[in-house]
Amino acid sequence: MTQLALVIDLNVCVGCHACVTSCKEWNTSGSAGPMGDQNPYGADPTGTFFNRVQTFEVGEFPNTETVHFPKSCLHCEDPPCVPVCPTGASYKRKEDGIVLVNYDKCIGCKYCSWACPYGAREFDEQQRVMKKCTLCVDRIYDTSMNEGDRKPSCVKACPTSARLFGDIHDPDSAVSIAIRESGGYPLMPEWGTHPANHYLPRRKTRIRIHLDELERADNPLKVDRQLPRPAMNEPTLDDVTTW
Amino acid sequence: MPAANDPIPSVQEVKNTTCYMCACRCGIRVHLRDGVVRYIDGNPDHPLNKGVICAKGSSGIMKQYSPARLLKPLKRKAGAERGAGEFEEITWDEAFATLAERLGKIRATDPKKFALFTGRDQMQALTGMFARQFGTPNYAAHGGFCSVNMAAGMIYTIGGSFWEFGGPDLERAKLFVMIGTAEDHHSNPLKIALSKFKRDGGRFISINPVRTGYSAIADEWVPIRPATDGALLLAIIHEIIATGLYDRDFLVQYSNAGQLINVSDTSDESGFFVRTEVPTEEACYEPQDKLWWDRNSDRAVVTHTPGADPYLLGEFKLADGTPVKPAFQLLQERVRDYTPEWAAQITGIPADIIRRLAHEMGVTARDQKIELPIAWTDSWGNEHDTVTGNPVAFHAMRGLAAHSNGFQTIRALAILMSLLGTIDRPGGFRHKAPFPRPIPPCARTPNDSRAVQPNHPLDGMVLGWPSDPDDLFVNDDGSPVRLDKAFSWEYPLSVHGLMHNAITNAWRGDPYRIDTLLIFMANMSWNSTMNTAEVRQMLNDKDESGGFKIPFLVVCDAFQSEMTAFADLILPDTTYLERHDVMSMLDRPISEFDGPVDSVRIPVVPVSGDCKPFQEVLIELGTRLKLPAFVTPAGERKFRDYPDFIVNWETEPGSGIGFLSGWRGKGGEKFLRGEPNPNQWEMYARNNCVFHYELPKSYQYMRNWNKGYLEWSQRNRITRYAEPILIHLYSEVLQRFRSAAQGKGLTRKPPQHLRKRIDTYFDPLPFYYDSLEAQVTDKHKYPLAAVTQRPMAMYHSWDSQNAWLRQIHTHNYLYVNTRTALQQGIADGDWIWVESQWGKVRCMARHSEAVEPGTVWTWNAIGKAAGAWNLTPDANESQKGFLLNHLISEELPGAGASGRVSNSDPITGQAAWYDVRVRIYKAEAGEAEQTSPQFEALKPYPGMKTRGSVLAYVGKLFK
Question: Nearest by CB to A36, which of B312, B806, B950?
Answer without folding.
Answer: B950
